[in-house]
Write a sequence for this structure.
């Protein structure tokens, strides 16, 4: 496990197993994301920030599991500083059986960095995908941040603003996943004075979801939604692309 610390006092834990950001908190230990854990009711693992790559959503059409394989493999740490770490995922065949041939040339780099300014603190993730193979492969990555629903609240009461439109969703809508296209690749999650901003580059669709509305809500920047919903771009041989997400928490009273 890798601990990142920022001069503001913010800190995060990054796990090379799956390149998960396991937790992110302020200097006073206030959690800014819902920390990764096993859920007692469902038995499923939820929380943190997994990387959904090379695809987002059901992957049967390209021979992959849900959300691809990035979150299920061990990444190698290649650079590390106090507030930043860079990881790489190469040589997939050494960790995966039955990898579809189109993905043999898939490699990735992920940079995780703590950031802060006068009234905001948070995290930036940049994901680089490369194709070093001989076939094009479908690539529509996403980030999957889990935001905490504080004790005694419900995700139904949280306001999600995408571009200029603010909405609240019923639990049934959130369980089904709401996918919304953004002109500005920008979303806000708000509960009174608590405000999270989600900025993205190359990820103009947001998936809003939860299956445990009294614990967390996800506002996920994606390239094109599920590949089962809409055609996704192919990454040709000898090409690469980078996508990015910034999470910024506005500190109340600052």
């Amino acid at each position: 496990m890798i601990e990142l610390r920022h001069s503001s006092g913010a800190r995060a834990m990054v796990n090379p197993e799956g390149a998960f950001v396991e937790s992110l908190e302020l200097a006073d230990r206030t959690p800014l994301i819902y920390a990764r854990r096993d859920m007692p009711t469902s038995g499923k693992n939820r929380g943190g920030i997994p990387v959904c790559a090379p695809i987002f959503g059901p992957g049967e059409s390209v021979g992959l599991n849900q959300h691809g394989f990035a979150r299920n493999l061990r990444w190698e740490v290649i650079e590390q500083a106090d507030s930043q770490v860079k990881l790489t995922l190469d040589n997939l065949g050494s960790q995966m059986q039955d990898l579809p041939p189109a993905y043999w040339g898939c490699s990735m780099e992920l940079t995780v960095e703590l950031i802060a300014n006068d009234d905001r603190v948070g995290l930036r993730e940049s994901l680089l995908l490369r194709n070093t193979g001989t076939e094009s492969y479908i690539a529509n990555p996403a980030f999957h941040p889990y935001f905490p629903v504080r004790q005694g609240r419900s995700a139904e009461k949280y306001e999600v603003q995408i571009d200029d439109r603010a909405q609240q969703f019923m639990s049934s809508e959130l369980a089904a996943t709401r996918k919304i296209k953004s002109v500005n690749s920008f979303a806000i999650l708000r509960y009174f004075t608590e405000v999270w901003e989600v900025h993205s580059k190359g990820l103009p669709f947001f998936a809003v979801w939860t299956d445990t509305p009294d614990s967390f809500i996800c506002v996920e920047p994606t390239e094109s939604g599920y590949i089962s919903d809409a055609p996704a771009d192919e990454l040709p041989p000898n090409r690469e692309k980078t996508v990015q997400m910034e999470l910024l928490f506005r500190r109340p009273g600052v």
About this structure: The longest strand covers residues 120-131. DSSP finds one helix and 22 strands in the chain.
